[in-house]
Amino acid sequence: MQRTVTCGGLRKVDDGKTVILNGWIHRIREHGGISFINLRDRYGITQVVIDNDSPSECVETAKSLRMEYCIAVKGKVRTRPDSMINKDMATGEIEVVVQKIDVLNKSEVLPFMIDEVNKDGTPVVPNEDLRLKYRYLDLRTAKMQQYIALRAKVTLAVRNYLSSNNFYEIETPTFIKSTPEGARDYLIPSRLYPGKFYALPQSPQLYKQILMVAGFDRYFQIARCYRDEDARGDRQPEFTQIDIEMSFVTRDDVLEMTEGLMGEIFKKTMNITLPTNFPRIAYDDSIEWYGTDKPELRFDMKMQNGNFMADIGTFQAFKDAVAAGGTVKALVVPDVAEKYSRKLIEELENTAKIYKCRGLAWMKVGTENILEGGISKFFENKGEEICTKLGAKTGDLLLFVADAKSKIACASLGAVRTKLGKDLKLCNPDEFAFAWIVDFPMFEWNEEENKWDTAHHMFTMPQAQYHATLESDPASVKGDLYDLVLNGYELASGSIRIHDPELQKRIFKIVGFNEADGQKKFGFLTEAFKYGAPPHGGIAPGLDRLLMIMCKETSIHEVIAFPKNSFAVSPMDECPAEVDQKQLDDLHISINIPSEKSQS
């Protein structure tokens, strides 16, 4: 009873054929003594029928069948009458009249139904921990089957495209030396070398650069990465990135290759044609216009400079912010003045305050550009001037954030812009809006440690025009780095790398790594650079996040076969878990868990 055809393969042209199907019972219906079974595998669903043309033993067996039994059926394909064609199923024109049934395996009562729907047709979604505990059942659902299939297609498209462009797929080690890369490393104790540890890679960064030194000028890898970060949102302790590195290239070369890769992925897997080139936005402009370096570009509504309002009105908060060297940021929300009540505006203000601003000021544009409500009393007879400068009109809502720190004003109003995009449904769910963010600051000031940190990583090449002033003016230095954003998410990050050992030492020194520290942590890389390292650069799109966006989801959990939950725990196999004392003894490890009293 091994299958001769899949559950998605039969059509009207197969009428009269005798076939064998293997699969799971998706639904069972009894009607007038006839049993209708929807049999499912990953290829589709076929309706099989046990009726008067079926042997009596099949009728008896059918009485014991339950949901998700794994069965084999042999039968004859029969075309359905026109009135009974199921247009929602690819196999809806036919059914299979059963001649023999074998129960390959039974199923216990399900913890949740596969593909259950509400009366209104919306899917019933069990809570996440239940889905992850029984992930093997959750993966049987049509949605998860489609997502995992898309993941396989995207991965294949990546391999085909990059291989056709002379890239080698090369694996790098998963047991490496612990190096500082931003997050905590997952450490692996060595049994053979007590007291010493391997680390799991946060990324293949150092090794792919060494591959460039080795002369493999085009490398890629579907790379597993590991970061021991605090539980938050949909972070995963293990994730996958499309790791790419190229020698003898400029920024433009890397960006154009990535654009081609994305175009190939979307065309081959979703039949969507992307633009040949994506817009490029300078980091400073992105912050000024959108309040973030990962802007949502499926709607316009740029933020504007409202500093002029400190001079033409009497609102003290605006005057104080500008006098302190800060800014007033303005946002014109078209045609929503009547819709937005004080309560809704307060919700927007709560969003802004998350980013440390003191408040959200507002006005509405009435007829003849007369300003109403909010802070309008501070700008009497200034409606025409304000509307002209901001491009506002009757019916618009004007929102403002002022702060002595421009970064806070931008981030706060930018968060409001993002919320408005969601609340007003301004984003087309079928649109994919890519953009490059370029010209990032090379360094960021760490107020807690009173030192400079690199904004990206320590191997990023500073743009050439800043090499002479690295030490004297780190704040103004721009790095030769770039992010690819898509629909409000950072999809990829990359840079042209430092290949000059002396320049690398200068960067180490600026961020507080003396030569001994650099040698200890990264000596094997800097040593390699002494032997003719070529100019090189790369990028690493996040595969999980790309798939999440393609599937129109908001969590990468949905596109990973076996993710951890938001607490970095797997409910299915209950990891992380304790291990036997003998295993600990072999590794010369003792467990010392602080008591609740000592922790408090």
Largest sheet: 8 strands, mixed
What's the CATH topology name of the largest domain?
BirA Bifunctional Protein, domain 2
Tell me, rounded to a whole number, the average pLDDT.
Answer: 94
Lateral arrangement of strands in the main beta sheet: 6-9-10-22-21-20-17-11
Tell the overall outline: globular
CATH architecture label name of the largest domain: 2-Layer Sandwich
How many runs of DSSP E, i.e. beta strands?
22
Structural class: alpha+beta
The CATH homologous superfamily of the largest domain is termed Bira Bifunctional Protein, Domain 2
Under CATH at level 1, the class of the largest domain stands as: Alpha Beta
List keywords for this structure.
BirA Bifunctional Protein, domain 2; Gyrase A, domain 2; alpha+beta; OB fold (Dihydrolipoamide Acetyltransferase, E2P); eight-stranded mixed sheet; 17 helices
Which helices and strands, and how do they pair?
Elements: E1 18-31, E2 34-41, E3 44-50, H1 56-62, E4 70-79, E5 94-105, H2 128-133, H3 135-138, H4 142-164, E6 168-169, E7 187-189, E8 197-199, H5 205-213, E9 218-226, E10 238-247, H6 251-270, E11 280-282, H7 283-290, E12 304-305, H8 309-312, H9 316-323, E13 327-333, H10 342-353, E14 361-365, E15 371-372, H11 383-390, E16 397-403, H12 406-423, E17 434-438, E18 443-446, E19 451-454, E20 481-486, E21 489-496, H13 501-510, H14 515-528, E22 536-541, H15 543-550, H16 581-586, H17 596-599
Helix pairs in contact: 4-6, 7-12, 10-12, 13-14
